[in-house]
Amino acid sequence: MVADATATRTELPGAPLAGAAPTRSLRVLLVEDDDGDAFLVEEYLMETATAVELLRARSLAEAEVSLAGPVDCVLLDLGLPDTSGLDGLGRLLGLAPTIAVIVLTGLDDEHRGTEAVSSGAQDYLVKGAIDGQLLTRAIRYAVERKRADESVRRLYASEVRAAENTRLERGLLPQALVSPGVDVVAKYRPGGAEAVLGGDFYDAVECTDGSIFAVIGDVAGHGPDEAALGVCLRIAWRTLILAGADPDTIFASMQSMLVNERSSDEVFATVAMVRVRPRHGVARFWLAGHPAPFILEGGQIEPVPADATGVALGVLDDGGWVGLDRPLGPSARLLLYTDGLIEGFDEPATRRRLGEGGLRDLIPGILASGLDGPALFEEMLRQVTELNGGELIDDVAVLMLSWAGR
Question: Is the pTM of this model over 0.70?
Answer without folding.
Answer: no
